[in-house]
Amino acid sequence: MDDHVKRMLRREILLARGKLTADDVRESATALAGRALALPELAHARTVAAYVSVGSEPGTPALLDALRARGVRVLLPALLPDNDLDWGPYTGEGSLARVRHGGGRMTLLEPSGERLGPDAVTGADAVLLPGLAVDARGMRLGRGGGSYDRVLARLERSGAHPALVVLLYDPEVLERVPEEPHDRPVHAVVTPSGVRRFG
């Protein structure tokens, strides 16, 4: 039942995102960067694990560059064949490479330099998670690939407790999303209009 609900919800949100113009995405990204940079969790972070947004995802490039300008070490994911994530340092736009996955169906921007291994994320003070929705309890709806479920499980196993922050558009903060036993709540959601924290 939940699987069906999740699929429908994902489709609905991706459809709405698909209707956004490049200007919508750009303006939202600027607002998101401003809000996220004001978060104490990011203001005091020395290392932030983030990701490069693609298409109509809530935009991260302005935020990544602002974090770097602050002297923060930014780690970005590289998708492994088993859907786990390796990590590499972000040193500016020139350090990104377009990588095709899934038989060319999906192109991601990934760090082109050294790989630090899947455990590198355990050294981050904050982790920015992609998502499609979050609910009033802080439960996040991902895209269904399971990559970030592995990241969260790895953090838990290692005893690391970074701040978990998801970046979304305003309509994607919902009353409730379906959850599974392994799902972990995030600490905060940042949208263009504000920040919401979860206890």
TrEMBL record:
Gene3D superfamilies per the UniProt record, alphabetical: NagB/RpiA/CoA transferase-like
Annotated binding of substrate, by residue: V52, E57
Signal peptide coordinates: none
Pfam families tied to this protein: 5-FTHF_cyc-lig (PF01812)
Biological process per Gene Ontology, one example term: folic acid-containing compound biosynthetic process
Keywords: ATP-binding, Ligase, Magnesium, Metal-binding, Nucleotide-binding
Organism in which the protein naturally occurs: Streptomyces prasinopilosus
Family the entry assigns: Belongs to the 5-formyltetrahydrofolate cyclo-ligase family.
Cofactors, names only: Mg(2+)
Protein known as: 5-formyltetrahydrofolate cyclo-ligase
Origin superkingdom: Bacteria
GO molecular function, one term: metal ion binding
